[in-house]
Amino acid sequence: MNFTSDVKKEMINHGVKDSAARLSEMSAFIRTCGTFGVKDGQPTFFLVSETENVAEYFMSQFSKIFNAELFVTHATRDRMSGRDKLLLQCPPAAAAEVLKTLRLVAKNGELRKGISASLLSDEGKEIAYIRGAFLGGGSCTLPMDNGTTGYHLEVVFSDKKTAKDFCLVLSEFEILAKLAERKETFVVYIKSKEQISDFLAVIGAHNALKKLSELVERRDEANRTNRARNCMAGNADKAAIAAVKQVVALKRLEESGDITLLSEELKQLVKARLDNPSMSLQELADKLRVSKSCLNHRMRKLMAMAALKEETNG
Fold first, then answer.
1. Which pLDDT score is estimated for 93?
2. Which among 189, 160, 170 has a CA at the least distance from the CA of 120?
3. CA dist., res. 28 & res. 96, Å (int)
4. d(CA 307, CA 269)
5. In which element (H, E) is residue 200 found?
6. What was the pLDDT predicted at 247?
7. Which of 83, 246, 263, 304 has a CA that sits 20 to 30 A from residue 191's CA?
8. CB count in 10 Å sphere of residue 107
């Protein structure tokens, strides 16, 4: 089961109980997964759902609201996703009243663009509308889903005005979504893991939120480990380059005979470095039983002498 299915299953298990909010949820669901038309001069619609338990949930909610039954006309398999699609139809005699009650048609009988304010008159209705829209046309993928590499949540609408209104609804909960046009649809989407977390909290998908938080923590820890490993590798490379430069410079001093003029401590360092070209400065310091800062000071003196010698010979 993918993350979208997990989220929707949890939402269904905590269904909307308030009758007024239930209308908002149903309206959003039909808006996002419904196809509208006219038959014998009367408006009609049918719904498409890829998730059986979502279809069952809304069939039950529809029955409670309208005392009528959505019925399954047939099931098809989507070639692209490989999922079964259930087609639900509203009883033709009830369709006009249903669309009117759910504020989906305007006074002239045409499909309304945008979301009716009556469906969003309080916070409970706003949350219910967000729930219904996600259940009908939403999806959420995480980096672990189907080889995806990023966080992505989206809800698809058929008209731009409704999609814009939905963005405004989300902004009431400080969720900042973006809007994009995809073929003949309008997609409200979120890519920030923090904003997706806020979305899941709003719709009450707390188990899914916990799963997301655990994934984020694992990935953040892995990223921290990788950064530390890369930093260590980078430091090791720098240390190796520095060691090579030191060996070359000290050999130059040795070949010039100037080694004999050095103090005993510097002679010991020259010998230790030439005998151990791959050792770090800390390892050399430990070997000579001095502090790293002391060793650094001595090495800088030797490198300065070697540089001066090269300039003089040049």
1. 84
2. 170
3. 17
4. 17
5. helix 193-202
6. 81
7. 83
8. 7
- The per-residue pLDDT for range 210-268, each reduced to its tens digit, is 888 888 777 666 666 666 676 666 666 677 777 778 888 888 877 777 777 788 888 88
Place of tokens 């430069």: 245
Residue 45 carries which side chain, given as an amino acid letter? F
Reduce the DSSP state of residue 154 to 3 states and report it.
strand
Please list, in sequence order, all residues whose beta carbon lies within 8 angstroms of the beta carbon of residue 53, skipping any fewer than 6 positions away: 8, 9, 12
The string of DSSP letters for 232-269 reads HHHHHHHHHHHHHHHHHHHHHHHHHTGGGGS-HHHHHH
Determine how many CB atoms are found less than 10 A away from the CB of residue 259.
Answer: 15
Alpha-carbon distance of 254 to 256, in angstroms, equals 5
- Which amino acid would we find at residue 113? K
Q: Taking the CB of residue 112, how many other CB atoms lie within 10 A of it? A: 19
How does pLDDT run across 291-309, given as a tens digit for each residue?
888 888 888 888 888 787 7
Do 90 and 98 form a contact (C-beta atoms < 8 A)?
A: yes
Q: Tell me the HSE value of 205 on the side-chain side, using a 13 A CA sphere.
A: 28
pLDDT for 203 equals 94
CA pair distance 178, 158, nearest whole angstrom: 16
CB 138 within 8 A of CB 50: no
- Per-run averaged pLDDT (10 residues), the chain, 314 residues: 87 88 94 82 80 88 89 68 74 88 84 92 95 94 69 94 96 94 93 92 92 78 65 68 80 78 83 83 85 86 79 64
- Residue 102 burial by Cβ neighbours in a 10 Å radius (0-12, 13-18, 19+): buried
Calpha distance 122→173 (Å, rounded): 12
In the DSSP assignment, the letter for residue 121 is: S
**pLDDT for residue 232:** 63
Instruction: List the beta bridge partners of residue 46.
Output: 35, 89
* 232 CB burial (10 A radius; 0-12, 13-18, 19+): exposed
